[in-house]
Every structure is written in structure tokens, then in C-alpha cells.
Amino acid sequence: MHYVMIAVGSAGDVLPLIEIGRNLRRRRHQVTLIANTCFRERTEQDGLSFVPLSTEEACQVALEDKWILTTRYSAVFWQRHAVAWNATIYRLLINLDPSTLVILTTDRPNVWADLAIHREMDVPAFRLVLDLPALSGCAPLEGNGKVEGVQHALEQRWQEQWRIEARVLGLHVGNAHVPRLFRSTRARVPTIALWPGGFVPEIGAAQGVHKVGFILPANSKPRTGAAPMAVLGSGHVVFCLGTEGTTRVWHKRFIEESAKICTRLLCRGIVLGGGDIDSSERHLPSHLEWKVFEPLSVSLVGARAVVHHGGIGTAAAAIAHGVPQLILPRVFMQPVNAEWLRRLGVCTVLDPREYNSDSGVWHINKMVFSHNYTMRALELAGQTDFCADMGYLCEVLETKSASFRSTRLLSVRCRGT
After folding, report:
1. Which domain CATH number covers 342?
2. pLDDT tens for residues 261-320?
3. Of the N and C termini of the chain, which has fewer Cβ atoms inside 10 Å?
4. Same domain assignment for residues 170 and 76
5. Bridge-based pairing state of the strands 347-349 and 30-35
6. Is this model's pTM higher than 0.85 or not?
7. Domain residue limits at 277
8. In this structure, are strands 125-129 and 347-349 parallel, antiparallel, or unpaired?
9. Any bridge partners for residue 141, and if so which?
10. Are residues 292 and 183 in the same domain?
11. Which has the closest alpha carbon to 118: 30, 170, 185?
12. 178 and 294 both lie in a single domain
């Protein structure tokens, strides 16, 4: 089979797909990843084919525009970038052999070309859910607010742009209307949740969701049974800047307060991320080290705490290492993830506007001294389905794809008679 994987987001979306792709390739499948250009080298290192969503220049502009997604005017981003992404995805998929094609897409609202192809070519498709499900009273921070006035006009503008693009691409008229496409097709596409069953027991097969566990790097497996740190005076603190493109103003205060926290705790700190921040701004005190990239499986070893914004990949790695988490949810699904993790007992949550040296030190001390957060994390990491069994996940994809094709073939034969 030829598995085509689609991710329009950052590393949290892309890296799990690369891990899935590596395992599918071992099972002698052809695998292609469609993602932002910055992931080309990592993808090809693992022996997978790569197709960029856009040029490097367009990718950089999209990164600079990403903050728009956190405002009421998120439709501007869709018009500038999402329409072109979906056109690129559609052009690639429509020219592939439908008899071998299987589509895997991270479940994001600004990707719909996979649904159009699923409907037009009648090929197997899957949606992969990374973030934890929405909670009542805890809304995602993405383009929130009523769609009215200017917002309505902007929505109409990007939808009209897609309809024009769809006519050029030769799409069926029904697939040119994105809201209708989601309503009619999304529910028929199987959903695979990349989080453990025990985290959200009320959602499962009855709701059409197949839960398989977190996908962690091979060197980041849970350290079940390890003892918590006994004293506050040991271990460093890891500070994660957050999703690139959303930290243009935030990073300065975040780093300043993080440095003060390390000074008061008499410990070393590691700042991770910030590839989009100019190197001239990376001036830190000697006890705080800035690393644009380092695997969490390295950074979290021996850490007393991690401060991050609620990305589910960071949270999963922290749980696997038994590291308490202070979460400052800022954008997208981060508030939802943070609330789930708070209920699970592995973190404390703080409004980013209240983050300073006083609140940071108080929360970190609270978590480290109690030991409860570490013990709860290790308990969760010890669950049998905490980490995805990649062999089992590949079997699910293979079995469901074969079942889909068999059903369609039988349906065609029945119509023929």
C-alpha cells in the first residue's frame, strides 16, 4: 500500500506521523509525508518520501502569520495559507493510484482535501487526533468569538477563494463547499486517538474513536517505578517556549521570569524552542541555557519540573519521565489539554498573565515537595496502553483499509448485478 500522511502543523503534529511512517515502511509499505519544508531532512533521514506543502518562502510567511490563528480574524490565515495547502494536497492525491492509496491526516479544521479525495476516489482515509477532547466550559483558544460582521465577510472570502481553486482543480461541486464536506464526510472517516484509553474512558469505540496510546520516541519510554526526587536542591527546570509563530511578544517576559525562578531556586534552567526568534535576542544569564532543539528525552532526565504551554507531546514526555508540570495554556487546544492533565493529577495550571517569579516558584515548590505529582505521573506511565504499540497500530491501519476496499468492491458487484 501507499500511505500518504498529511500534517500542516508544527513538530507536535509531524513527529508522530514520521514514527508511524517508519513502522509502516518496515512492513514494506510505501510512505509519503506532506508537511512544511522544515521537516524534509528529518523525514528523508528515516527513508520516507517527502512533499512540501509550500515553498520555503511561503512556509516562513505562514510561520510569521501564525499568531493570526489566535485572534477573531483567523479566517485571514485560512485565506492566505490553508486554501493553497489544500490545493497542493489535492493535486498530489488525485494523481495517485487509488487501488493502493491510504490517507492519514492529523485532525485539523484547516485540512479538507483528504476528505474530498476520500469522497471522490473512494479510498481509505483516517484522521489522527493528538489533542485531548474538548471539555464543557473549557474552549480552545483559536479564532474564538462570534462569526459576524467582518469575521463573516472574511469567512466568505476564503470559502469563495477555495471554490475558485476547486473549479480550476476540477473538483465535484459538492466538494467545493468546505462546511458541507465536513458535515457529510468527516463522520465516515475512522478516528484514531493518539492518547491512552484510560485518560478519557468515556470516549471510545461507541463514539467511533480507536485509542492507541501516545507515540513517544524510542528513547523516551516510561521510567515506571523510579523514585521521586527527595530534595528540592537537585535537578534543573525545563522551560518550553511554545509553538513557533505564537511567541513573538510572549517570549521576552517568559524568559525573564523563568531566569528569576531559576535564581530563586538555585538551579540550572534549560529553555527549549524559539527557532523563529532572532539570535540577537537570546541573551541569557549563565544559569539559563537556550537550546533551539533538544529531544525531551534528553532534557527531562533529572529535571525537577517542566514549564510549558499544554502541548500534548510535551505533556506525554513529562509523564513518561515522572516530571511534574506547570502549564501556562495560551493558544489553540492548550487550555483543554491543561484541564485534562490537571484532573489527572500530573500538573498545576497557571494563567500566563499571572506567570512571574513568585507564582512560578510557589507552584514548582508545591509539586516537588508533595511528590504526589511525580507518583501520579509514574502511575499513569505504567498503564499498558500509555505508549502506542506501533505494530498493533499498523495492523489496525492495514486491517481497516483492507476492510474498506472489500466492502466497496462488494458494493460495486452488488450494483452490477
Report:
1. 3.40.50.2000
2. 999 999 999 999 876 566 555 667 888 898 888 889 899 999 999 999 999 999 999 999
3. C
4. yes
5. unpaired
6. yes
7. 237-381
8. unpaired
9. 332
10. no
11. 185
12. no
